[in-house]
Specification:
Blueprint: E1 2-6, H1 13-20, E2 25-29, H2 31-35, H3 38-50, H4 74-84, E3 89-92, H5 95-109, H6 118-129, E4 133-134, E5 137-139, H7 148-158, E6 163-166, E7 169-172, H8 173-180, H9 191-196, H10 200-230, H11 240-246, H12 249-262, H13 266-270, H14 281-284, H15 286-307, E8 316-318, E9 323-325, H16 333-361, H17 363-366, H18 383-399, H19 421-450, H20 460-469, H21 483-495, H22 497-506
Parallel strand pairs: 1-2
Antiparallel strand pairs: 3-5, 4-6, 6-7, 8-9
Helix pairs in contact: 4-7, 5-6, 5-10, 10-12, 10-15, 10-16, 10-19, 10-20, 11-12, 12-15, 12-20, 15-16, 16-18, 16-19, 18-19, 19-21, 20-22
Length: about 500
Amino acid sequence: MKTLTLDGQSLALTDLAPLARGERVKLRVTPDALRGLQASRDMVERAVAAGEVVYGLTTGFGKLKNKAVAREDLSQLQANLVASHCVGTGDPMPVHEVRLAQVLRLNSLLRGVSGVRIALIRQLVALFNADFVPVVPQQGSVGASGDLAPLSHMAAAYMGMGHVILDGKRKTAKAGLKALGLDAVVLEAKEGLALINGTEIMKAVGVANLLRAQNLSKAADAITALTLEAMFGSPKPFRARLAELKRSEGQRRTAANVTRCLKGSKVVTSHASCDRVQDPYSIRCVPQIHGAYKTALQHVTDVFEDELAAVTDNPIVDPETNEVYSAGLFHGQPLSMIQDYLGMSVCTLANVSERRIEQLVNPDLSGLPAFLTPKPGLNSGMMITQYAAAALASENKVLAHPASVDTIPTSANQEDHVSMGITAVRKARTILDNTEHVLGIELACAGQAREFNLQLKAGKGADAAHRVLRTVMKPLKGDRFLHPDLEASTELVASGALVAAVEKAAGKLES
């Protein structure tokens, strides 16, 4: 099991990739990061001892900010906060996303401005390393004062409320703690607020989305290369000179990927003197279309890399200035907007892939047997796969409506503008699901189209894509129950196995 070291500062997307893939990791916190917590905790304890009125420490929350709370009730105040905010609904978040949220919340607390005790961090690390995974409902956050409801479910599990996944089984949090021989967390002043006021749920889903989107960036290029081979398309639009003229880094990366996949192709050289003037846009304009996707993906990546170690708490207890700030670092607008952008960008991959599927299955366009079956008429072949791809691409267009432009006031209008960040990341996740399936369908169709020209050797990357497809899907000789084949093809795309096979044969691709 890999060890992930947290210091509150240097977390990177590559560090989180194993968790996003569903792997377990062991957490370690640097001694310096732990020591750095004490100064802000001292500030909290001094404020409590002096009877100062500080939001969230000695007052109620939201609209109840002006209600002072007695010192002897401050621990109960934090417990009440967590319990009362556990109002989430919907299906539970996937386990890998909850693990990501656990790590991201810890990393934010380790910045040393949240006022939590060192002992609390040690408890949370121990629970994570024991694979104590809270059950967190997906819906119920408006993404403004942090992901209050889902983070409360996560915090409540630490306190012995709600449910957890332990050893792959769902059980009560109390039973899970007992099975591990670990104590329930007892919160002190400020700590409940510190655990639930943040954007780590939308950030966790967003990280998983982003890593999937990076894989799709490479997979789409590799599948395009296989489609181009099957369609006897021209490699000229993928020349590096054209990317120079366009002055587009995204186009350069796309063109380089497809060119790498076509290296050594006998298919390309076999029709060098054919009379076809131009390929359809869905092939000829791939450098521009996939390139624009890569440009968007780079921007999303840049934002998320900054956010991984961001403080998203409130209030901020800052020992550097010796001040307590009641601010809005918990607001999810930066993540909401960028995940809407990601979702819309992923739609583009599905849209153009569906058009290439049509090119492949339509005999009037491809010059191949109708619907890629050796015996059309008796057999429908891959005809209805295009219908499925069209349905998914069309659904994506509905989901692409931005969540970040919406807002609805909460907390008696005290919290009068919200981000809808959870909605944005959940929509983007579904768009990714759909697009992985569309690209899986294109892979299956392109692989079937290649069966009619196997006497001509494909490029290294395209050939690798075809060969790995054939490990899970046999060539189509006649009609059969296709659903398992398409699911297997989609899994090759979604799991990264397709990209891994292509890169092994052709070299590293750029996302």
